[in-house]
Amino acid sequence: MLRTVANRIESAVVRGEIDNTVEGRTIGWIWLLGRADPVTLDLAGDCWRDLAGARLKFRNPEATGHAQLDDLQRGVVGDMTASRKCRVPLIPIDDYLEAKAAGEDPGEVWKNTLYLEWFSESDGRVVIETTDYELELSDPEWRMDADAEEAQKLANLQAMRDFLERIIDRRPFQPDRPEGVEDDEFEWEKRLKESDRLTDAYQEVLEKYMNDPDAERKEAFAMGWDGMLEAMADKQEQSDPEDEEDDDEEGWMECDDDMDFGDREDEHPLIQEAEDLAVRAFTTLDRESEAAAEVASLIGQVAAKLAGALCGDYEREIGFVLALLKRCLSLQNEALAAFNTLLEQTPEADRRRAIEALRDDFHLLRGKTSEMRRELRGT
Q1: Which of 108, 110, 117, 116 is nearest to 86 (CA)?
Q2: How far does CA 363 lie from the centroid of its chain?
Q3: Which tens digit of pLDDT belongs to each residue from 139-164?
Q4: Could you tell me the strand order of the sheet in which 25-32 lies?
Q5: Which CATH number fits domain 269-378: 1.10.3470, 1.20.1270, 2.40.160, 1.20.1440?
Q6: Where are the domains of the chain?
């Protein structure tokens, strides 16, 4: 089964070689930490111009991770280049994140990034993205011109679209239901699963193209949003450059980082409880711990799901609410397991008591969620 997110393997790579000396074909060998034999690449397509026609050898001075890949990677190339630009912090990443959280400017610098992407028949989208490898590039045995590079980039964009199309697995068009007929919980679960797949796919697209000057168009194409592409083309044909500049300035919105849930008088009590727990988790847990970060994230997701199911002044279909509450219960189970891990890693008595109190209140919320689901199923 194809992964829904990119299989990023840069931390597990010890060394490797990419060979594009035969036009239209890219081969390679990648040695991963803990494996004696290399993973072999046999891919259709070419690298970008900086690597096209040449052999690239690379070495990771600090291989530490683990990667699970089939020994033979057949498929098509994605974007393969050693000249992709990215912003890199000037200080260690932990210090950088702490400074950003404090509202400080820790400083960044633009660097060339090694970006090797391919679409494997067995492992889906695989990516190596790093500024830390040692690189050695041979002279090219053939040269790619600008037109050929643009054609290859378009082919790479199509490969991304084809991959995401299989991941999203859109359901066939459903005819309108007769008036007064509601979808049941299981039909809503199908819809929500497709929504989850769309969310995962869009996250991949945003991550890949966020620094691209043509990001909006590429994102729409990769996601298969042809209607949006047509609207963008129409807007571009009709827009006046000066008006477009004004629109861009007006389009910026400031975002407040403080956690604010607004007017709560009409909120459902379960939403209020979940939001209060999310605030407590945000303010009391040391989120430098992986388990604590997971707990805080899951509680926040529960609050968001409950709000989606229960907030607002209009009546939702029971099947929709049941499907979302089922997802809440699943997230709550994950959070309780993460609580147990966090407690095992917390020796200080005062912190343990605070975490236990938060866990116990969260467990009560789970019970109320389960009870509401039982009541709705009874209707």
Answers
A1: 110
A2: 29
A3: 999 999 999 999 999 999 999 999 98
A4: 7-8, 124-130, 108-120, 72-89, 39-44, 25-32, 13-22, 55-59, 134-137
A5: 1.20.1440
A6: 7-160, 185-240, 269-378
